[in-house]
Amino acid sequence: MPPDQNSPAAASGSRTLPSGQRGVGIQVLGLLAFLAASALVAGLGGLATATNVDGWYATADKAPWSPPNWVFGPVWTLLYTAMAVAAWLVWRRRTAETRPALTAYAVQLVLNLLWTPVFFGLYPALGTPALWIAFVIIVTLAVAVAVTVLYFGPISRTAGLLLLPYLAWVVFASSLNLWVALNN
């Protein structure tokens, strides 16, 4: 049904969008905002690891299944990108479940941001207790990511699936954190 001829939308020549859809420009800005949030978390995490990965962590007793340090950058880049796209897919749906789903996403993103400086940055000051604090954070992060997957899946199956590698990696990273906490 065409807009009312006297409505502001008709006067401007624009069309109203069906419920749940956003204009292309807003969608692109939304995607860029989610990518920027992921990039910010990644960048801040990188600052915390930059000096410590070649410092105390280089000589730490690490799990035998720990990958070489160069693997972490590319893996996290892919995961942060997938996370942003997943959040964007949920955001663009505008359902009643979108707000709680994105709240869960924000919680896990904050936990993600918190883990790196605690694990890498606090160890020189606190020693092993910092590694145990980081372990509690990363286990909480794994739970938060699982909850986010459960929220995202019904809104966008693709979004839920995009977070599964992230969940698997966080669980894997939890095992690495546990080993380092037990052995350092």
Task: Give a verbal description of the structure.
The protein has 184 residues and is an all-alpha fold. 75% of the residues lie in helices and 0% in strands. The protein contains seven helices and no strands. Helix 2 (24-50) runs antiparallel to helix 3, helix 2 runs parallel beside helix 4 (98-121) and helix 3 (69-91) runs antiparallel to helix 7 (157-183). The model is unreliable at 1-19 (pLDDT under 50).
Q: What structural category do the secondary elements indicate? A: mainly alpha
Strand tally = 0
> Average pLDDT across residues?
87
Looking at how many chains there are and whether they match, the oligomeric state comes to single chain
Q: Number of helical runs?
A: 7
SSE inventory with pairings:
Blueprint: H1 8-12, H2 24-50, H3 69-91, H4 98-121, H5 123-126, H6 128-155, H7 157-183
Helix pairs in contact: 2-3, 2-4, 3-7, 4-6, 6-7
Main attributes of the structure:
single chain, 184 residues, mainly alpha, 75% helix
Briefly characterize the structure.
The protein has 184 residues and is mostly helical. It has 7 helices and no strands. It is elongated and about 50 Å long.
